[in-house]
Amino acid sequence: MPDDLDFSAKTVLVTGGAQGIGRAIVEAFAWRGGRVVIADLDLAQAEVVASELTAAGCQVQAVGVDLADATAISTLMADLEQRLGRLDVLVHNAGYFPLTPFAGITPAMLERTLAVNLSALFWLTQGALPMFRRQGRGCVLVTSSVTGPRVAYPGLSHYAASKAGVNGFIRNAALELASEHIRVNGVEPGMIATPAMANLGDDAVNQDIARRVPLGRLGTPSDIAGAMLFLASDLAAYVTGQTLVVDGGSTLPEV
């Protein structure tokens, strides 16, 4: 029986793969045979991850890119096509979310939040289309969030707006690209234990949050990576235009 989670001979691009959720996604695909490209603003850290996984027998390489720059994204995708010749899975995981009270959000902050979290998704997907079309299929995955589409969080109005936009993109792009066998889906993480999560509160705050999660703990990056693997695999071949909530039950209604 074939392994539905075997990504041998598949090329996977993961943005924001140098740490946290992104690193877990990179590792998940790499350990299952995927040829993974990490695209990250922090090239030095991305190269550390690539080096460690390559030393362990995986196929991983790192490139630096500022995902707020549409021209840089175009260059990234053209270079990937020239060097590797194909792309099977595009994962836009990179995010920008400076915790800021609503009244303190500046034009520059809002513009970068929307550029990295939402606009980059358009340019990455457009850049992947020629490769997807040659192959007759493709998969776009996005790290969305429960914040925006389902819940609110103080200090993240700009982030919430970008993620609500991401979910709109997922549905509409999935509809437009379905006839070309290109699937578009996303994962909505809840509270995940990452370095970024640590910046939102101290240990006592985070422990209190964990106690209020129905499953009794914060999520881990591997929880999100597992959902991404499923959505990228042929197990989800009939799934498109959807987001999978991975939040330990946090958004379930209380009675």
Automatic annotation (TrEMBL):
Protein's name according to its UniProt entry: 3-ketoacyl-ACP reductase
CDD domains: SDR_c (cd05233)
Keywords: Oxidoreductase
Pfam family, one: adh_short_C2
Ketoreductase domain ranges (all copies): 10-190
PANTHER family referenced in this protein's UniProt entry, alphabetically: 3-OXOACYL-[ACYL-CARRIER-PROTEIN] REDUCTASE, SHORT-CHAIN DEHYDROGENASES/REDUCTASES FAMILY MEMBER
Domain of life: Bacteria
SUPFAM superfamilies in the record: NAD(P)-binding Rossmann-fold domains
PROSITE patterns: ADH_SHORT (PS00061)
Family: Belongs to the short-chain dehydrogenases/reductases (SDR) family.
NCBIfam families, per database record: PRK07231.1 (NF005559), PRK12826.1-4 (NF009468)
